[in-house]
Amino acid sequence: MSEKLINKGIRPDGRKLDEIRPLKIKAGVVDRADGSAYVEFGTTKVISAVYGPKKVHPRHMEKSKKAILKVRYNMIPFSVYDRKRPGYDKRSVEIAKVVSEALENVIFLEEFPKSAIDIDMEIIQADAGTRVAAITAASVALADAGIPMRGLISSVAAGRVEGNIVLDLTKEEEDASDAIDLPVAMLARTGEITLLQMDGDASVDEIEKIVRMTEKGCKDIEKIQGKALIEKYNANTA
Ligand code: UDP
Fold first, then answer.
1. Which amino acid residue places its CA nearest to atom 16 of ligand 1?
2. Does residue 96 have its Cβ closer than 6 Å to ligand 1?
3. CB distance 136 to ligand 1 below 6 Å
4. Does 238 or 3 have the greater pLDDT score?
5. For strand 68-75 and strand 115-125, is the pairing parallel, antiparallel, or unpaired?
6. What is the pLDDT at residue 236?
7. pLDDT, average across residues 32-48
């Protein structure tokens, strides 16, 4: 039998079951954009930049009563071990769509009719959890751009590995034979879930435990997102 990844509640990287990887967030990392953020969940690294609100191109895409979001998710070729072919694929289009849906309901889009807000997310290094890191970064970048929102969206995945419910899976854990992974995004202030995805089989009890674990994770992440924005603001006003 192959060796277990999790022994007595301790994971391969030394974390406990309900622990998130070391999280780093920095707001305002791209001078050229209206807002930006850099996020690290352990060795998963992402940068997000926001442009707008601005005119819509092509014009026929504009909405008379609200702004539209144009979201792009991209993994750069050296973000993974098997060099990734540059450009978009089915997976990146799907992730851009779910990220857009995770963010749009908390942005006051109706304040900017006939406008577009561009959100770019570049995955610099991937070790699972890239979509949740991207959402966490995009939310800080939107706030940094001064886009009015009901609050910050925070995001993390939790799942099951070798029968244990665990927070913030690495690629090694995700690849375990019985593993399932549920990326969740929420308006941490209220607990309102804006993204919940799942592949594989899980019982209702497991799903409940997993979602509860992401809730605590998102509340912790929101604090660090807020701190990053305050640090940027303080640096600008010093
Ligand atoms: N991955 C990869 N090459 C790819 C796509 C994904 O190596 O073309 C890896 C990468 O580490 C990624 C992980 O598989 O983070 C899990 O991918 P998934 O589609 O589940 O999305 P994520 O967990 O990154 O949001």
1. 128
2. no
3. no
4. 3
5. parallel
6. 86
7. 98
pLDDT band at 199 (very low <50, low <70, confident <90, very high): confident
Cβ of 45 below 6 Å from ligand 1: no
Atom of ligand 1 nearest to the CA of 95: 25
Amino acid at 168: D
Closest protein CA for atom 14 of ligand 1: 128
Element at 100 (helix H, strand E): helix 90-104
* Ligand 1 centroid to residue 28 C-alpha, Å: 26
Q: Is the CB of 209 under 6 A from ligand 1?
A: no
Ligand 1: which of 171, 172, 214 to mutate, judged by most atoms within 8 Å of the beta carbon? 171
Give the pLDDT confidence score for residue 2 in this predicted structure: 65
Distance of CA 111 to the CA centre of its chain: 24
* 23-237 placed in CATH 3.40.50.920: no
Read off the pLDDT of residues 160-190 as tens digits, 9 standing for 90 and up.
999 999 999 999 999 999 999 999 999 999 9
> How much is the pLDDT for 162?
97
Q: How far apart are CA 202 and CA 81, in angstroms?
A: 29
150 closest CA partner among 96, 206, 208, 110: 110
